[in-house]
Structures are given as structure tokens and as C-alpha cells.
Design goal:
By secondary structure, the chain is an all-alpha fold. The protein folds into two domains: 1-42, no CATH class; 53-266, no CATH class. The chain contains ten helices and no strands. It has helices at 3-27, 29-32, 45-77, 81-117, 121-148, 150-156, 165-181, 183-198, 203-225, 231-266. α5 (121-148) runs antiparallel to α7 (165-181) and α7 (165-181) packs parallel to α10. It is globular and about 60 Å long. The chain starts with a helix and ends in a 6-residue tail after the last helix.
Amino acid sequence: MGIAGAGLASTLANLFMAGALLALVAREQVLRRFRLLGRIWRADRAKLAEVFRVGLPIAGAMLLEIGVFSAAALAIGWLGAVAVAAHAIAVQTATMTFMVPMGIGQAATARVGLFAGAGDRAGAARAGWVAVALGAGFMAAMALLLVLGARPIAWAFLDPADPQAAQAAALGATLLTIAGLFQLADGVQAVAAGALRGLKDTRVPMLLAALGYWGIGLPLGLALALPAGFGAAGIWAGLAAGLGVVAALMLARWRRMAQMRRRAALSPPRAG
């Protein structure tokens, strides 16, 4: 079925996951008591307004991140089949490693949110920092793996009998090395963003993502790829720079919010 088969497989996989999660919510005793689908026909406008206020910037930040990699893939398409193959190798590998910090970030959202909702500001800050440390530690190990094993990983995707396989493997190894260099930044920004969501801080992180990905990463990548002549490696270097900026800004934002929470927790109550 060609490319249509890939799209159909993605659709079926997502439908399966949605159905499995709904079945889990309906069967699991701990989750059933929340009645997540109870009286779904009765809209709670106040709650929905809050969901959209907090949730739309999260969707916007995800769209910005996914969009910049999609735009990079389109730009790499101008550079030929070998560049597209190398990009596919690097992006698939980086996506696999990213799944772990993304999951840690979602756990950080839940844990920070639970502590914040209970009024435990110190606990919320601690939960966020622990999650950031876990994500950074895992991605540091992945960085080492990608940098040291770039060439074997690239060849694992290719047919040695293909006449262009050697070129694709060489370029893929270069892109994997660049991906290895931004692993730590990618993990930190994902977990820090998750921790900030636990504090319902979503609008500013979305703006930081817009600046890093679209204001710095993609323009720099295109400049390095085309006028500077670095090709696909230039685009990936630009993406790495953008991710580094986003990670630094997200971490600074989380540090500021965590310090504000901690100071509020340590401040003596005002006399009534």
C-alpha cells in the first residue's frame, strides 16, 4: 500500500490506543470512581473554559515542536534521497529516545499538580526537580549511546545491497551524532515543560517554544543548510541550537516558579 499503508497503520494504532485507554478507565476501580465519561452530554462550561485555558497552549507548544521537525523534513527533501533517508534514520532514533523523558514529563505534570493542589509547595518543587534529574540522566546516557554508536545504528536501518546505502549511512551517522549532542537539552525541556504544566503554567512555555524552535532553530538551520552549504547537517545543527535555547529557557522558567513556590511555603502566615 506504500505511503497510504503507513498512514493507515498510524490511524489504526491510535484508534486502538484510544479504545484501550477508555476500556482501562471503565474497568479500573481507582479510575472508575472519577466517572470520566459520566453525563458527558452535560457540558460544565466553567470547567471546560479552564481546560481550554490550560490545554490549548499545551497543544500549541506540541504543534510548534512537531511542526518544526516537519518543516525540517520538507527542507531536507530539497537535498535529495540520501539526505531524506539519513534524516529519517536520525529522527526515528531521536524520537524513540525522546519517549522516555516525555513519559517522565507527563508523570511530573501529575505529581507536581497533586502537590500543588494539596498546597504542598515544597513537595511540588521537589517532584519537579526529581523528574528533571531523571530525564537528564537518561538522556545523558542516550547521548553517549548515539555519539559512540552512530554508524552501527545508521546501518541497522539500511540494506547493504542498496548502492546509496554507504552514503546514507555516513550522513545518517553525522545526523545521529548531532542528535546525540542535543539529547540532554531535549530531555530537560520536555520534563521542565511537564513540571510547569503541573502548576498550570502553559502560556509562557508555549511562547518560549515558539521563540526557540521557529525564531532560532529553523531559521538558523536553513541558513546553515543552504547559503552556508552544510546541507542536512546544517538543518540538524540549527534544530539542536533551537532545542538548547528552549531547554535553557524552560529550565529557567521552572527554577523561577519553583523558587516562588518554595518562598511562599516558607513565608510566615500573615496575622489576620
